[in-house]
Amino acid sequence: MAATVPAHREEVGKLDKDDKILAHFWNLASLEAEVQFRASSDLVDAVLKTQSSAPKAGKREDGEAVVAAYSPTTGYTLKRLVKGLASGNAGARQGFALALTLLLKRLPGMTADDAVLLLASYLEAPSASKGAETRDYLLGRTFGIGAIVQARVPASTACKAEMIDQLLDAGVLKSFLREAAATVILDLVASETEESVSALLSACAPLSAALSASIDQSTPEMLVIALGLWPILPAAVVEASPLLPSGAPRPAPGYQTGAATAAASAAFFAAPHLTTLVPLLTFTTANHPALHSLWTTLLAFLCPGEGSVIADAALEALWMRVVEPELVGSGSHARKYLSITLFLRLLPHLTADNVATVLSPPFLRFLSTNVSQRKAYLHASAHRCELALVAALSGDDADLALAVSLALQRAGGSLWDRVRAGAKSAGAAAPGGKANAITGVQSLDAAQLAELVERQVAVISSACGALTLDDEEAGEEGAPPLEAPAAATAALESLWAAVKQESATEESRQAVFRLLAALAFLEPGQEAPTPQPTRGSRAKAAAKPGMEDPTMQTLRAAGARGAALRPLAAARLIALADFLAKRPVAPGSAAPSPPLADLVAWVEGALSSGHARLARVGAGALSSTQPLREALSRATASADAGGRGRVAALTHLALLLQLYEWADPSVVDPGVGPDLADVVDRALCQAGAEVDGPRAGVNGDAAPAWHDTLVDVVLSLLARPCSPMPSAPLRNAAESVFRVFATDLTTTGLQDLLRVLASLAGGPEEVLGEGEGSEQEDDEGSEEEEEEEEGSEAEEGSEESEAEAASSSDEEVDAEAGAASPSGQGNDSDDGLGATDAEMFRMDAKLAAYFATIKNGKGGNAKAAAEQLDQFKLRVVTLLEYFLKRSPASPLVPTAAVPMLNALAVAAKPSGSQVLSQRLAGLINSKLVKTKPGAAGVSAFEPEDLAAALKRSLYLASRSADPVVESAARAVYTFLQRAAAGQHSAGDGARAVAALESAQAAARDVLASRRTRLDRAFFANLLGRVPTLAPHLLPGLLRGCSGARSEFVRAEAVALTQLALGTGQAGVAGVLGDRVADVQALLLSACDRGVFAKPARQAEAARLAARMAATLLPVQGRAGPAGLDWGAVRAAAGAAAAAAAAAESQKAAAAYQALLEAIPESAAGAAAGAPKPRKRAKKA
């Protein structure tokens, strides 16, 4: 009996025989989308032909019941498509999901409930928790639910809740599925209403709990879901969710443009709410390099609807609170890449008013760095931004192009140059070859600049005047201060750049000056009724602006947020005024009115009108610089041609001080104005100090000279911090004042400058006298080490006399070098300044107090304090440079050499400042030592001070291991010897003796100390600059040629003796004649091969002997000085020449032959017949 085959098996058997239907399943796994779609469509068409009718309606229990309700082919296809969702082969999962979507959509009677049963029955979960199998299962389930949702089949609320629950569970198990799950969930509830969503949330507890979870328990994908559901979420759910702003109106469905959507966007992008979402926003970079769907949702919410404009406040909050600090400022490449992606997405929607918000200085610096570095990880992405900026700069929107160019110009750097060049190239390549690109504010003419100024002023008024809810809360007591709007800040920067251009009109410049001054210094006063205009009232109104002035109207319109612009406005105003005051006037053009003088006059007029008052000080405290300005008025009337430059420099400083005082009274010392007024009266006015005589000080003592007071004021201005205002204008003005008065510098003033370098050289402790002795101890330690070394040399077999000479030499060089420490040159009389500890801070007490603040560290930061000290010392070096340039022949110049050298020695240490070291070395080598000492020479030194200065410079020249310090010390020592050379002819015996003894100590140091770094080059330069030292150095050098401790040192002595003989000084021959025994010993040792073993040194000694013979014989007669045995020398030279020839030492043989020729036989015979000197009786 034949077996009966079930009908559905027969149908499957027929399907197996149909290769065309089976081929569709294979084609579903293709990687080509077109093949997948065609196979899916053909498969569904073929399957539907086998389905004659719809299944019976009713609830089914599992997937088997669903399959049985359809034809065998349909059931087989449903099972195979569901199982294929878990396949990872090629494109199988995507193709099978596509076919399942089409089949569910077209299959009659299919519901989402039945489809979920199919997934539960035929998408088998892995038995074990294996990673790959679990991943494929969860992916298949997500794709399956997505196919059900896309099919748009009827679904019950319970079914929807179950699908959402499964999707959320998949996201919990695999984080990479969260974004896909969120997309499917939003697609599932797209057509829901507020009532149905409320029922769905009640049925789906996981979704309700996720919406109300705290930020640290939430995910970016849940924020995407919350934003998508916001238009239809119940109010209670919105209030309970920290992901959405509470109390805000719901946006329109689909975020359509309207008042509700705009209000919701403003509430969502408010700074407080956005700050709470920062952890979720930054976590989206886990999808790098893909852009997370959260950002596409936020960008759509930021710019809702077609043709809508991005809200400036929302964009500013997003960029300033999230993008700039969390993405651009991050160390993660993924986050920085995200910032570039967001910029490229936002740029097409930006306008001229808000482009400056995105092109912030930190973002532009980040772009510039990555654009310029081709090997940078983000170079390619940054280059795309560069191309986008080029397109914006050369586009049709002229306002946008100008705003982009202004933002790039403010940032500066290579990015602006590259974008400008790209825009020019794009413009040149435009049709017709006309370059229509805006390449910066400098390309605008006067009319365009005036229009720009007017537009930017309007931006400041509107941006500052638009207060939000957050701003109102910030203005309450205890709340943080308001922040300046980014648009207003960018507009202010644009104004600053615009009026710096030469094409700007005087009217535009005055308008910007007044606006900046009003924002920086003033706040609206009490409005007074405007009086009726009378005769002459218009002229007074120009000097005293009232509320009808547009500038004052803008100030009142700016309101509370305008005060946040005050520091920036003050900084830009001061820098702009200083820039315009220094700009040279073109030849043939009329000189413009002084900008600082006009500006100060306008502000004073605004204050006196009563419509404005100073924002930082009381209305009664107008100016502490008033005495100075009055004194300058008197000086201007009486100044001659030579004094006008001094009056101009002081006037510029006085006006700047007035602006700084208005901006921040703590920046300006109240005593500066009166002190400078006193300087003006005594130095420039006719009733000055020269007429009145010396003035009495505070305690009845004689007041300091006016230039000493000026130096104190200048140092105080250079040391005082100016933040947040720019410090450069005030410090440059102070330096300019010092420069025009540099020729009047006194000894006390120079001491003040040098003490800044010397007393501060060791750091903040030495400022207050707590670091003295540190360098002295170091130097004394080195001296002890040298003495120990010399003692060990003596124990090893050196002759006792030689060891004593070495120790004596070291002591002479080092004895007071340690005491002459860099912090003050040792004891109070060794530095050439004659200062005691009590006088160390003769500078004003306020400057010392500031140094005490630095000692404690700037804000507790010792590194910052050290940097501030280095900067201050660099400014003092600049003042010294002005002094050396304008008074190179001053007798005070030599006294500055060693203190500057001491500061260099400390700055060159590893713990010092390399910049300060280079600056000091350059000033010493290129300026100080190249000055020409006048007739006074070193008369400013006391003899003991000169000796101490020479010892200190010699110590550093011979012991410093730093080549920079060694070179500078050699130059300073030679300079001091050159300056002291004039004392010989002037008959100044004490100073001349000090200089000569120092030079002799240097020679002994070379011959006796092992630690010395002095060499032939040093003495060659010294004798070349000061040849008069040669006769005084010869006695010690002669003894060293034959009696030094080693052959090397004897060779050095020979070389130095050669240098001394080469100076040609008249006293050289006399010295040789007086040192017969030493000369005889030198001549014989030159011929002794035991003294000089090396042929080169033998030749050098022989040449010296020949030169000495040629020097002595013509002067002393045929036989030379009495007691010289020329015959013995000639015999020794002949023997040495024969030995050198036998040893084939050609140079030595030639040298000895030259010595023989230098001593004629007649001299040798005369010397043999001459009476020999009697020997001295030995001392008891």
Describe this structure in words.
With 1180 residues, this protein is an all-alpha fold. The protein contains 60 helices and two strands. It has a two-stranded antiparallel sheet.
Brief summary:
This protein has 1180 residues and is mostly helical.
| Assembly context of the chains | single chain
**Biggest β-sheet strands, sense, barrel:** 2 strands, antiparallel
Spatial sequence of strands, sheet with the most strands:
1-2
Number of helices: 60
Class computed from helices, strands and strand pairing = mainly alpha
Question: What attributes does this structure have?
Answer:
single chain, 1180 residues, mainly alpha, two-stranded antiparallel sheet, 2 strands, 65% helix, 1% strand
Secondary structure layout:
Layout: H1 7-17, H2 19-28, H3 33-49, H4 63-68, H5 72-84, H6 92-106, H7 112-122, H8 131-151, H9 157-173, H10 178-188, H11 194-203, H12 205-211, H13 220-229, H14 235-240, H15 259-268, H16 271-276, H17 278-282, H18 293-302, H19 312-328, H20 333-346, H21 355-358, H22 361-372, H23 379-393, H24 398-411, H25 413-428, H26 446-465, H27 469-474, H28 486-498, H29 506-521, E1 522-524, H30 537-543, H31 550-562, H32 566-582, H33 595-609, E2 612-614, H34 626-638, H35 644-663, H36 672-683, H37 689-692, H38 706-719, H39 728-740, H40 747-759, H41 764-767, H42 774-795, H43 800-814, H44 845-855, H45 862-886, H46 897-907, H47 914-926, H48 943-959, H49 963-980, H50 982-986, H51 989-1008, H52 1016-1025, H53 1030-1043, H54 1047-1062, H55 1067-1074, H56 1076-1086, H57 1095-1116, H58 1126-1142, H59 1146-1158, H60 1161-1169
Antiparallel strand pairs: 1-2
Helix pairs in contact: 2-3, 3-6, 5-6, 6-8, 7-8, 8-9, 8-10, 9-10, 9-11, 10-13, 19-20, 20-23, 22-23, 22-25, 23-25, 24-25, 24-28, 26-28, 26-29, 26-31, 28-32, 29-31, 29-32, 32-35, 34-35, 34-36, 35-39, 36-38, 38-39, 38-40, 38-44, 40-45, 40-46, 42-43, 43-51, 45-47, 46-47, 46-48, 46-49, 47-49, ...
